[in-house]
Amino acid sequence: MENQTRVRCPENEELASFMKNKWKEMASQPKGLSDNIEMALSKAHFNVCNSKNPIRTIKDFSTVKGVGKMMLKLMQGFFGTGSGGTEPDDLTKKGKKTKGTKRYVPQRNSVAYALLITLYRGTSNGNEFMRKQELIDAAEASGLSRAPIAPEKGKGKPGHFGSSPQDWYSGWSCMKILISKGLVVKSSCPAKYMLTQEGKEAACDCLKRSGMAESLDKSASVEIPIHMDKQNSLDMEVDARDLESEVTSPLNKQKKPLDVPLDSLERV
């Protein structure tokens, strides 16, 4: 099923990727995909790619052409349970008017979420920036994203829907969102990625919401006792050697035979 349409709105790239991975997941099951579901997924995916407006909630998603009850149920894993009722109704009505008044915070376990937190952690130890591959590797290893970040090489044909998880899209594309939202700055060649002040605040917000706010402090505090233990163990070894020398020295002196003349023994 051919689909060469790129995502027009950067904020919808994660949703488009999720739909595509859902297609692959269902197709790999023993029963496979029915023609009706395949057509519905393909149509909804096409319309999501063509949407000019960001699709932030399941309520927004329900307004996309070709999205029905079945599609809403399939996409609950992306938006989360009840996510459509957690935001005020006027958010979707105002559209672009509210875009600049509310700071963008990536959705939990999204690629943008993983990249933001990883960049925050990577630059919290004194480093001012991270490079692309370094950031991708660290974000992949963190397990914070439910979708792959690095593109897969040599798989599928570009533009073929469902042929490969990364034929025209890769999780790294979400970096464009972070840059466009003013959370990350890209500079130099080769590229260096740095967090803005707003990006640091957004990363802290993500960590607080997920309960990982103190992880950096804990990891930093653990290093001190480890070094202390190593030093203590060295001191103990030195003390043990000194003690051993003190104990064995008098014993060695006592073990030396006394040189007593035989004549003196006979006299006694």
| Average residue-wise pLDDT | 72
Number of domains: 2
- Beta-strand segment tally: 3
Structural class estimated from helices and strands: mainly alpha
- The helix fraction, in percent, is 40-55%
For the record, the CATH class of the largest domain is: Mainly Alpha
Quaternary state, please?
single chain
SSE pattern: HHHHHHHEHHEEHHH
Q: Quote the CATH topology of the largest domain.
A: Arc Repressor Mutant, subunit A
User: What is the straight-line distance between the termini?
Assistant: 117 Å
| Helical stretch tally | 12
What best-fitting shape do the alpha-carbon axes yield?
elongated
Largest sheet: 3 strands, antiparallel
Widest beta sheet: strand line-up? 1-3-2
Keywords: DNA damage, DNA recombination, DNA repair, Endonuclease, Hydrolase, Magnesium, Metal-binding, Nuclease, Nucleus
Pfam families: WHD_MUS81 (PF21136)
Subunit structure: Interacts with EME1.
Enzyme class: hydrolase
